[in-house]
Specification:
This protein is an all-alpha fold. The chain folds into two domains: 1-56; 58-102, no CATH class. It has five helices and no strands. It has helices at residues 2-7, 11-56, 58-65, 67-78, 80-88. The chain is rod-shaped and about 100 Å long.
């Protein structure tokens, strides 16, 4: 410590510097922990929602992949313009004629 006295640094000054550095370190740790918890909870909730969605829609996805689902998609795509027109014009409410060949 005699060398520090020659530089004009007192024990009180060293304690202040150590306190500031310790505070900055503690603040960094707190910010890091809070950021980690926020990101981890967000990712976890998204994964839960995704897995629930997969379970609920499994039957629907199976139907879409089936031959019947593929045929329905093909019919819809070929008749999309007719279907849009029927929805817009009120005189056709109740039904429209579409092509069902696929």
């Amino acid at each position: 410590m005699p060398q520090l006295a020659k530089l004009g640094v007192s024990n009180w000054r060293l304690a202040q510097v150590a306190g500031v550095l310790g505070s900055v370190l503690a603040l960094g740790i707190i910010i890091g922990v809070l950021t980690y918890k926020t990101v981890a909870s967000s990712v976890t909730s998204q994964l839960k929602a995704f897995s629930t969605l997969q379970l609920e829609d499994k039957k629907l996805l199976d139907w879409v992949k089936s031959n019947e689902g593929k045929a329905a998609r093909s019919i819809y795509v070929k008749n999309a313009a007719i279907i849009r027109t029927c929805r817009k014009q009120k005189k056709y409410s109740g039904g429209c004629i579409i092509s069902v060949e696929y």
